[in-house]
């Protein structure tokens, strides 16, 4: 039937038409009938009437126009223009409908024409900067199939890449899309090595490398899987320098980046692991994991493997990473007989034929175990352990391969962190024994099929857990060792043998260790490794244990026949009493407090605390009670990381509440800020740095209680709100003490990171500009406090305001040493574009000595400003409230502006024009300078013609100005340049003549210009004679 035919999808006869498809088609049919035989004006009236009648009518007309744009390429522009005409909700319905199509499990069935039109529509909507369109980009990036070399998939990957390249400036404003795009195309690059895809691969390489260089911090949120993907491409020449910088010179990537250790210790969020499975793939995989019982999953898994993995073996890695860290079973599933993750993983492993893919899968399976901390989610490591335990009798070669590979990875993956990884692997084992994931390692160790090499690996990795008592119990229960169920019958076992897994000469990229290219002593390497110690029995210490052992995120096992119900206590003689969290010894706390060092992790690039004024322990604990200890403990837990968002928010609330208690005592006592900062600077910086990209800079309240419970606020918000509250009080000592503390915090941070404080300072006060009506009454005092902050923070007592801003802006030099970077302003611009333009007018108004004429500041403004903000800046400039260029205009900046993006060029000249408009002497001085005349002779002025004409329109046509305009026309050798400048002068003279026909200077200029044109040897120039004549006609 006609109604069952889809114009959006290529469907088989037995497949039902999508409901949204039917709805859109029906609306479009109705729309076509209503405009049949109508004129353009009548259609326009019908659209306006329909869109204004009701919400339902508006939805129908928008849906109809969208359907027409998707299915009729020849009329797409007309339909889009009509959509723009009737738009009442900022394209909200259009975005919603397109997002449904982009995230649909049938996306791969879209007709090529429909998909092309969808991308065209997204391009148009992105150009208009429509809200919420970033969600469509995320869905489309997810629809790129890893390992799929079909023309349909590669063409789509290419089209989406072009779209991202075309809207690069827009992309830079959306860190979430940047990270997903980098993760997606980094994964695609190794698959596109064939000759016919080499051009696509080169384009992907250029896109990814440039994006990572420009937005490294946005990419760092990917976590440790970013390192894994970079290893896969590290042999490609374009990535070699990036890989070298990551290992040896991390500051080249970003002044705030601490090195590869930071990435390796950061778990990859689920979002990035999910993005490599299309919605269709994830839907089918979750059906197996959430609905099929153990023993009944093989057929569905076989279909899944045959459809998605048969010709795309590299996709195994993405599936394994998703199963390990991208999805976790609920407590209900764990207590049922639904097939466990490790069973599905085992079936997948046994179907792999390619040894390179097998090696990459192994590292994907144990990757999170290498860097496991006690506060990490135990679900990261549960599948690999259960796979080894349950395979010991039926598939002993899997147990052998995984155990030996785990040992190999600990020793060779990244040698500088070898000791740290050993402790992380042991920590993971201890937690699994505590939580009852397995009862003991001895059944594996004593299994008759376990090889000697496997036992040796177990001794090397887990010797504290191979006790004689456990050995005796294991011998009595050797026959009860759990087993793996049968696999999906796809192919025979073909994984590498244990000997091959660790000694093959053809070691795949992801299996290759990260090279230690730094020449450091053994002592230096030990200092770089996170501090994790062992007690006398070998149990791990230095991690924070959660109080709630029943927390679902830790390990939500209930009673079932596949898991042992009794938990075997770990081999640790120092267990705390029941119901009490494991505590750090008091003397250790005192030592940590006095040293001002956190026990969290990552001491590879420690934050330098330069103060010597440290409180003694008796003073500290008598004065603050346990507030500082609780503050440091909560911060350590936050830095260690939480998968459970609720637990993370709980620890942040504890840290903020403890900080408030500390500040309350500090403001009442005669204690220096430098002494207190020695014990808090590192934690405050680490938390602020960690939450930088996700921090919500909107201030919701000036009440500290509200800030503490608000999950979007962090420690710096507590400090700044306390300062703000103190500033509003009559007591002058409180603001002084807070400035003493903030200055000490700034001084305690390494020079390369101090701009973070400046950025947070200005972002805090920028957020108040829209909420405080009396901003002019307090901004002067805030800037005076800022002078105190920077002068004391950089050890420049009594420094002037201009010098202070210079200090905070010149925190770091760019890599070519061509001059200072406006680091704190650039950082603020990256995290909150709106705030930078709330702050800039204040900087220009209250700090004119440094800001006026600052070339880097003008470039930053031009690169980040949007039209409405530009209009506000122009109005402030023309009102005489601020200046950007000052009395001495930098013509080098104007010359360089022609090499920038068109919008940036126009912005710079619009700001200059606004500053000069109506100022006769300055206009004449600017246009009459030799540098300006040379610029007009050599640069193409078409882009800035409106700005120049608006500038000349505000000036009086004096003899000097008219003569200067004639001098702007270059010699006859530059024909095209002459034509542009002649048109500029003709337009200016025409305007002046209309308002002052009797002016002799204008008449003389017209006559001079007419003679010049009439006698020009070039015919195209002489054609302007008619334009000259029309001036006086």
TrEMBL record:
Domain of life the protein comes from: Eukaryota
InterPro entries, per the entry: ARM-type_fold, HEAT_Ints3_C, INTS3, INTS3_N
Lineage per the UniProt record: Eukaryota, Fungi, Fungi incertae sedis, Mucoromycota, Mucoromycotina
Major localization listed first in the record, in broad terms: cytoplasm
Region (Disordered): 471-581
Cellular compartments per GO CC: cytoplasm; nucleus
Organism: Lichtheimia corymbifera JMRC:FSU:9682
Compositional bias per record (Low complexity), positions renumbered to this chain: 486-510
Domain Integrator complex subunit 3 N-terminal positions: 57-459
Keyword set, alphabetical order: Cytoplasm, Nucleus
TM segment ranges: none
PANTHER family according to UniProt: INTEGRATOR COMPLEX SUBUNIT 3
Subcellular location: Cytoplasm; Nucleus
Name of the protein described by the UniProt record: Integrator complex subunit 3
Protein family membership: Belongs to the Integrator subunit 3 family.
Residues covered by the Ints3-like C-terminal domain: 674-1005
Alphabetical list of Pfam families matching this protein: HEAT_Ints3_C, Ints3_N
């Amino acid at each position: 039937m006609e109604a069952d035919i889809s114009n959006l999808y290529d469907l088989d006869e037995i497949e039902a038409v999508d409901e949204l498809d039917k709805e859109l088609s029906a609306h479009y049919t109705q729309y076509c009938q209503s405009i049949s035989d109508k004129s353009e004006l009548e259609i326009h009236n019908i659209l306006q009437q329909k869109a204004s009648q009701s919400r339902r009518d508006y939805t129908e007309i928008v849906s109809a126009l969208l359907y027409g744009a998707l299915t009729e390429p020849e009329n797409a522009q007309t339909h889009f223009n009509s959509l723009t005409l009737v738009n009442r909700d900022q394209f909200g319905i259009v975005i919603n409908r397109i997002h449904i199509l982009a995230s649909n499990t049938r996306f791969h069935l879209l007709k090529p024409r429909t998909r092309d039109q969808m991308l065209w529509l997204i391009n148009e909507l992105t150009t208009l900067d429509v809200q919420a369109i970033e969600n469509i980009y995320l869905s489309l990036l997810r629809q790129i199939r890893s390992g799929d070399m079909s023309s349909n998939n590669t063409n789509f990957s290419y089209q989406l890449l072009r779209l991202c390249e075309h809207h690069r400036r827009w992309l830079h404003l959306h860190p979430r899309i940047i990270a997903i795009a980098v993760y997606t195309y980094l994964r695609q690059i190794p698959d596109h090595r064939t000759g016919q895809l080499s051009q696509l691969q080169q384009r992907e390489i250029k896109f990814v490398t440039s994006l990572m260089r420009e937005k490294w911090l946005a990419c760092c949120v990917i976590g440790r899987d970013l390192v894994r993907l970079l290893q896969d491409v590290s042999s490609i020449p374009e990535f070699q320098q990036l890989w070298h910088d990551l290992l040896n010179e991390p500051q080249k990537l970003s002044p705030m980046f601490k090195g590869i250790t930071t990435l390796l210790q950061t778990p990859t969020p689920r979002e990035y692991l999910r993005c490599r499975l299309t919605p269709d793939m994830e839907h089918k995989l979750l059906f197996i994991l959430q609905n099929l019982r153990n023993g009944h999953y093989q057929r569905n898994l076989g279909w899944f493997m045959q459809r998605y993995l048969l010709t795309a073996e590299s996709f195994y890695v993405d599936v394994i990473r998703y199963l390990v860290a991208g999805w976790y079973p609920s407590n209900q599933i764990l207590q049922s007989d639904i097939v466990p993750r490790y069973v599905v993983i085992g079936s997948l492993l046994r179907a792999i034929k390619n040894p390179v893919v097998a090696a990459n899968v192994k590292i994907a399976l144990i990757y999170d175990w290498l860097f496991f901390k006690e506060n990490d989610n135990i679900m990261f490591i549960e599948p690999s352990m259960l796979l080894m335990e349950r395979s010991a009798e039926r598939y002993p070669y899997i147990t052998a391969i995984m155990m030996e590979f785990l040992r190999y990875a600990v020793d060779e993956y990244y040698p500088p962190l070898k000791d740290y990884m050993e402790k992380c692997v042991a920590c993971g084992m201890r937690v699994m024994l505590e939580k009852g994931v397995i009862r003991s390692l001895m059944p594996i160790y004593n299994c008759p099929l376990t090889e000697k090499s496997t036992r040796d690996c177990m001794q090397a990795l887990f010797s504290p857990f191979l006790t004689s008592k456990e050995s005796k119990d294991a011998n009595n229960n050797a026959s009860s060792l759990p087993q793996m169920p049968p696999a999906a019958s796809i192919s025979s076992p073909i994984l590498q043998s244990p000997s091959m897994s660790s000694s093959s000469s053809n070691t795949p990229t992801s299996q290759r260790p990260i090279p230690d290219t730094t020449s450091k002593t053994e002592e230096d390497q030990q200092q770089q490794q996170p501090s994790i110690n062992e007690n006398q029995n070998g149990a791990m210490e230095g991690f924070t244990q959660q109080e709630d052992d029943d927390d679902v995120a830790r390990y939500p096992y209930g009673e079932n026949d596949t898991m042992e119900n009794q938990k075997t206590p770990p081999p640790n003689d120092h267990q705390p009493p029941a119901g009490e969290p494991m505590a750090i010894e008091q003397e250790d706390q005192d030592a940590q407090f006095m040293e001002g060092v956190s026990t969290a992790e990552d001491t590879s690039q420690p934050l330098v605390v330069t103060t010597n004024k440290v409180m003694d322990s008796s003073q500290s604990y008598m004065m603050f009670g346990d507030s500082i200890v609780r503050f440091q403990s909560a911060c350590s837990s936050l830095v260690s990381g939480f998968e459970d968002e609720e637990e993370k928010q709980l620890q942040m609330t504890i840290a903020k509440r403890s900080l408030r208690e500390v500040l309350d005592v500090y403001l009442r006592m005669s204690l220096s800020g430098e002494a207190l900062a020695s014990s808090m600077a590192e934690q405050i910086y680490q938390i602020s740095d960690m939450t930088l990209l996700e921090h919500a800079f909107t201030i919701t309240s000036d009440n500290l209680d509200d800030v503490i419970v608000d999950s979007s606020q962090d420690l710096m918000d507590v400090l700044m709100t306390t300062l703000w509250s103190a500033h509003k009080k009559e007591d002058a000592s409180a603001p002084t003490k807070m400035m003493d503390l903030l200055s000490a915090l700034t001084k305690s941070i390494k020079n390369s990171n101090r701009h973070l404080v400046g950025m947070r300072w200005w972002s805090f006060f920028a957020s108040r500009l829209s909420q405080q009506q009396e901003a002019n009454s307090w901004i002067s005092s805030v800037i005076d406090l800022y002078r105190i902050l920077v002068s004391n923070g950089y050890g420049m007592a009594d420094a002037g305001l201009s010098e202070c801003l210079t200090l905070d802006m010149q925190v770091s030099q760019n890599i070519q040493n061509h001059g200072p970077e406006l680091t704190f302003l650039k950082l603020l611009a990256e995290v909150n574009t709106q705030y930078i333009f709330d702050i800039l007018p204040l900087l220009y108004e209250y700090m004119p000595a440094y800001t006026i004429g600052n070339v880097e500041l003008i470039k930053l403004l031009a690169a980040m400003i949007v039209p409405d903000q530009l209009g506000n800046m122009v109005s402030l400039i023309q009102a005489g409230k601020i200046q950007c260029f000052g009395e001495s205009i930098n013509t080098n900046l104007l010359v360089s502006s022609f090499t920038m993006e068109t919008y940036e060029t126009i912005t710079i000249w619009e700001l200059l024009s606004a500053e000069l408009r109506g100022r006769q002497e300055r206009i004449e001085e600017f246009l009459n300078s030799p540098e300006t005349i040379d610029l007009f002779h050599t640069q193409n002025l078409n882009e800035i013609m409106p700005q120049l004409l608006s500038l000349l329109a505000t000036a009086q046509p004096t003899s000097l100005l008219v003569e200067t305009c004639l001098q702007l026309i270059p010699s006859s050798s530059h024909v095209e340049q002459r034509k542009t400048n002649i048109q500029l002068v003709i337009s200016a003279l025409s305007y002046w003549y209309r308002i002052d026909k009797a002016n002799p200077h204008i008449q003389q200029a017209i006559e001079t210009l007419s003679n010049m044109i009439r006698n020009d040897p070039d015919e195209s120039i002489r054609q302007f004679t008619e334009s000259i004549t029309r001036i006086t006609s």
